[in-house]
Amino acid sequence: MSMAPGSGAGHREGSLAGALRVPLRPPVPPLAARLPAAGAATAAPWSADPYSDALRTGQGPLYLRRPDGWLLPLEVERWCGRADAADLEALRRCKGAVLDVGCGPGRLVAELAARGWAALGIDVSEAAVAHTVRLGGQALRRSVFEPLPGEGRWDTALLIDGNVGIGGDPAALLRRMSQVLAPGGLLIAETVPDLDIDERVSVHVVRVTGAHGDAGDVGPAFPWARLGTPALLRHATRAGWRPDGQWATGGRSFVALRNRRNFPTRSSAEPPNSTAVISSQRDRKSSPERPVADL
Question: Is pTM beyond 0.90 here?
């Protein structure tokens, strides 16, 4: 399966590869030292237990729980495994330099890196970033709504594994993705299969224990969204995106969108005291002629 970038993307891809190698602060303290006490309202939703614990062990059961008690299974074992056939079909459509938003434990970033592509994962979870780095990928501990390297220059962005729900506001997320991508850039998003659902809710990450499905560890509440393909296309059309394909495989569904707008971007320079955690791996498609400071 060819993973070669599209024509004309090579120079930008090389430039962005340089952006992945940013100066770091001293190592971030261990996660346990920075988490608030149990029950504190300030814990970040995907950086606190039980999500971090599940990524470290590679095992669930883990769920998103709505206030009414409804549970959505989180596929921890699949996320911590290798890219499957459905993942590879999505990656086959990528062009140029790729940003994986909410990269989780990094299977997609690692797969792209192994194939020689410039790829960066971002995630708010320290455990997810650490797992991505161990797999050989590059990752930043960062929210998509914070300043990012190479803003306005990424050729492809990924919102896989339900990450179209990040922030609980699809319109805001689509606008932000327009800022991150280059004009005409490609967004590949995974949607809820076989349903025309457009749901915005407050959820907790919970680990379920016991034969009766009792909740064990419970993370803090945070906003989330669930979108089927029709709902995402409606939001995308209103936000000025152009549909560029949709497909289903392996029981999962995906949408490709093209960025038709060029929103003003924030500075793409890395803050001098960044708390990002990235790998020391050097991308095989880096450009020695374009220093990081130029991005």
Answer: no
Structural domains in the chain, CATH included, are 87-201+224-276 (3.40.50.150)
Query: Residue 248 corresponds to which tokens in the numbers above?
Result: 């289903």
Q: Which of 42-46, 120-124, 143-147, 194-198 comes out lowest in average pLDDT?
A: 42-46
Residue 76 CB partners (closer than 8 Å, separation 6+):
54, 55, 58, 59, 60, 61, 62
Q: Are strands 119-123 and 98-101 parallel, antiparallel or unpaired?
A: parallel
Residue bearing tokens 């990656």: 91
